[in-house]
Amino acid sequence: MDSQSAIHARDLRKHFGRVHALAGLDLEVPRGTVFGLVGENGAGKTTFIKLLLGIAHPSGGEVSVLGGSPQDVAIRRRIGYLPENLQLPAALTAWQFLDSVGRLKGLSGADRRAQIPRLLSRLQLDEAAWRRKTGGFSKGMRQRTGLAAAMIGKPELMVLDEPTDGIDPLGRAQIRMVLVEAARDGATIFLNSHLLAESEKLCRHVAIVSKGRVVLSGSIEALRSTDSWRVRFVAGTDVEAIALRHGFEADTDARAAGMVDAFRLSGHDPGTLSRTLHGALSDGLQVIEVAARMRDLEDVLAGAVGGGGPVGGS
What we know:
Blueprint: E1 5-16, E2 19-30, E3 34-39, H1 45-52, E4 60-65, H2 73-76, E5 79-82, H3 94-104, H4 109-122, H5 139-151, E6 157-161, H6 169-184, E7 188-192, H7 196-202, E8 205-210, E9 213-219, H8 220-224, E10 225-233, H9 239-245, E11 249-250, H10 252-256, E12 262-266, H11 270-282, E13 287-294, H12 297-307
Parallel strand pairs: 3-7, 3-8, 5-6, 6-7
Antiparallel strand pairs: 1-2, 1-4, 8-9, 10-12, 10-13, 11-12
């Protein structure tokens, strides 16, 4: 088993009778990265997470977590998990719940007393709520408590299912910061979320799953790249004609979004872009913006799922 990977799956299969929830899934998640799992409902993401956590057994293929078996209790203690439909014990306070999770992970009483207030503070759960029973918590409060439970004991791998569900926009930004800091400290963050904009902001790599297989994977930058550039020039009477003469096209997407002065240069590397811009500037145009044109993750997902076949990424 590959100890260099936080998660390793090869030809992983899971059948429920005639239903093939996983149909030969291949995935490699490097340690220390923030990795997103993306796909439509029923693609196999939840089944894959159950296999990672040892909740279910594969029908075939292989899967390892942190270099060992998901069924190994010692391995499972090194994993933090936040389920999508989090159910907290209503009779316990937030502090009591985290204390029980810490005991299950083998933390000493001193460690638990040190980590619990630090985690709850970092995740911005009001201190007045620490000793309140979780049965009266809002969705956002439950989510913050569950995320603190996933982080207690400084796990090497955190498997997070919809971690910002029910959190307000400012709270989401704070949680993203906390998770990025955890990754910088060496943790691997494995994120499953239907909120594609959140995945774009947080993840460095993603894998797209369809019909129980990975159909596209790679870095966010590589997957979103369109091999084209958006260029905006200072407005003027001859701008359109000069830009078109030098090979630029009207960027209809950007113009529809209100950037009426936007042009597109497609299929060119940075060197060609520089030479083309030099020619346009020599003809009197003035540049106010140059940016790589990027697809959003929703477009990447739609293209991958509609493409029909496995595709490798960088």
